[in-house]
């Protein structure tokens, strides 16, 4: 009977209601929630920007110059994420 519309709110709602999806320890829980927000607000936007560029802007005269810049931002974000993950199985 609950309708949510933001993916972050939906993920958080599910994670709060199903054991094991968020840590019990308060600090670990806060870090997990921080990563959830980072995924939605830092990692995902340049990926969506690339899809917009490829699907909707490919006929623009500036497309070929813009796309490598967007892809560099994706590599930077995923590189930061990979560096933080290191050899661990999860963040």
In short:
The chain has 91 residues and is mostly helical.
Description:
With 91 residues, this protein is an all-alpha fold. It has a domain of 61 residues: Up-down Bundle (Glutathione S-transferase Yfyf (Class Pi), Chain A, domain 2). Helices cover 71% and strands 0% of the residues. Helix 1 runs antiparallel to helix 2 and helix 2 runs antiparallel to helix 3. The protein starts with 6 loop residues before the first helix and ends in a 6-residue tail after the last helix.
- Number of helical segments? 3
Stretches with pLDDT under 50, minimum 5 residues: none
- Summarize the amount of helix as a percent range: over 70%
Give the strand tally.
0
The major beta sheet can be summarized as:
none
Annotated CATH architecture of the domain at 25-85: Up-down Bundle
What is the 3D shape?
Answer: flat
CATH topology of the domain at 25-85: Glutathione S-transferase Yfyf (Class Pi), Chain A, domain 2
One letter per element, helices H and strands E, the order comes to HHH
> What class, by secondary structure content?
mainly alpha
The first-to-last residue Cα distance is 32 Å
Looking at the chains present, what oligomeric state does this protein adopt? single chain
Whole-number mean pLDDT:
93
